[in-house]
């Protein structure tokens, strides 16, 4: 006999699933953070992470591929950018991560701008990164991070849409210090 424990929980709470609220924070370079509402009950929680009607966040560019990545503590995955209008959306499910976005295009009116976003499993956030800017991540927790990332373009195995720089490339300048970007700068403020 299978016991679903229906008598223990009020399943009517989940009917309001479609009424979940979201909050959107806007940053420079078109970076946005979506903070979805989390509904808790005795069984755990549920939250929406993607809705096609979240127009103000997705701007009509919807994910076509979803990947999962695990990074060990301290690992830096940077720098790369996309030239075919790809947008990346990052959701850190486990661990803590710094996500950096940098405009290295000397012809751009935002050249030299840098955005740092800190996210982790203690706060549920989805970070939108316009792919035309250099971007990368670093696991800053003392345990591995797991990131679900949504891509608006399918990965092309024959002709990848990825331009890369080394994680410590001297052309990436931190506008606050006017020196080469230091991935560990956050450690000095702890």
From TrEMBL:
Molecular-function annotations in GO: dTDP-4-dehydrorhamnose 3,5-epimerase activity
Entry-linked InterPro entries: RmlC-like, RmlC-like_jellyroll, RmlC_Cupin_sf
SUPFAM superfamilies, sorted: RmlC-like cupins
Site (Participates in a stacking interaction with the thymidine ring of dTDP-4-oxo-6-deoxyglucose) residue list: 155
GO biological process, one term: polysaccharide biosynthetic process
Transmembrane spans: none
Gene3D superfamilies: Jelly Rolls
Gene Ontology CC annotations of this record: cytosol
Domain of life, per lineage: Archaea
Coiled coil spans: none
One Pfam entry name: dTDP_sugar_isom
Protein name in UniProt: dTDP-4-dehydrorhamnose 3,5-epimerase
């Amino acid at each position: 006999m299978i016991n679903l424990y229906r008598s223990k929980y009020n399943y009517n709470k989940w009917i309001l699933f479609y009424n979940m609220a979201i909050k959107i924070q806007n940053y420079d370079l078109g970076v946005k953070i979506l903070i979805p509402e989390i509904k808790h009950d005795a069984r755990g929680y549920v939250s929406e992470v993607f809705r096609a009607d979240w127009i103000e966040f997705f701007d009509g560019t919807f994910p076509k591929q979803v990947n999962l990545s695990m990074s060990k503590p301290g690992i830096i995955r940077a720098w790369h950018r996309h030239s075919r209008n790809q947008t990346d959306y990052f959701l850190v499910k486990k661990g803590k991560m710094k996500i950096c976005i940098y405009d290295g295009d000397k012809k751009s009116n935002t050249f030299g701008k840098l955005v740092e976003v800190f996210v982790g499993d203690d706060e549920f956030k989805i970070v939108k990164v316009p792919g035309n800017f250099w971007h990368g991540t670093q696991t800053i927790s003392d345990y591995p991070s797991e990131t679900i990332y949504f891509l608006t373009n399918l990965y092309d195995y024959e002709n990848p849409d990825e331009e890369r720089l080394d994680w410590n490339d001297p052309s990436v300048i931190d506008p606050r210090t006017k020196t080469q970007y230091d991935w560990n700068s956050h450690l000095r403020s702890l």
